[in-house]
Amino acid sequence: xxxxxxxxxxxxxxxxxxxPGDPYRSALIAESFLSEARLVNDVxxxxxxxxxxxxVPVSVMxxxxxxxxxxxxxxxxxxxxxxxxxxxxxxxGSYSRNVKVRDIVIAIGACTDSAxxxxxxxxxxxxxxxxxxxxxxxxxxARELKFDFHVGNVISSDRFxxxxxxxxxxxxxxxxxxxxxxxxxEMETAALYMNAARxxxxxxxxxxxxxxxxxxxxxxxxxxQNSFTDMIRLSLETAAEL
Length: 242
Hints:
Radius of gyration: 17 Å
Distance between the termini: 25 Å
Strand content: 25-35%
Structural class: alpha/beta
Largest sheet: 5 strands, mixed, barrel
Strand order of the largest sheet: 5-8-7-6-9
Mean pLDDT: 94
Order of helices and strands: EHEEEHEEHEHEHEH
Number of helices: 6
Shape: globular
Number of strands: 9
Oligomer: single chain
């Protein structure tokens, strides 16, 4: 059952997988939140675990950084290992004054500057969106938990470092995308949503705002760890409802 990037057997993964970018964060989630967690993949150090959350089987596996990486892992999970739902849990940079550091952004859709969709040979522009059931469940749980959250569009970029620093602020990406109502920037969601659509599966991205490209505020490494706990808890509570 192994693929070029995942060495696991059929049934090793639960139907719902949480996907942080960082392999060490997948280990942290498994050790801190799951009971009976067992390692099911460690190819290239990309750790995947399956355990129980409130008695419900849940897996967690890293996606790596960027759309090519999450594109590989989500494709294999959806198409070879029977996974039905993937919830991305990661960081994002705010493009809105209303979206503060530590807030949670639940991505209803994902704009992108990537050519990832070109592989599907569509006669137009595809709009990558979340699964409504996952989205609705996450919003309900976020309200119950009284978290500070926003639901809206993100932009999945192919670039972490862009060559726009010398441009006037009005011509920089945070201003151009922000005026279209885009809440935050990250690097994976659009590819995940496209892979889910193509496979007939479900996906959702839940991100913690780690910094603001509007105000310049940013969380320290310690603050990120504490804030990310809310995002992980929200995603696991959502998974437990599926």
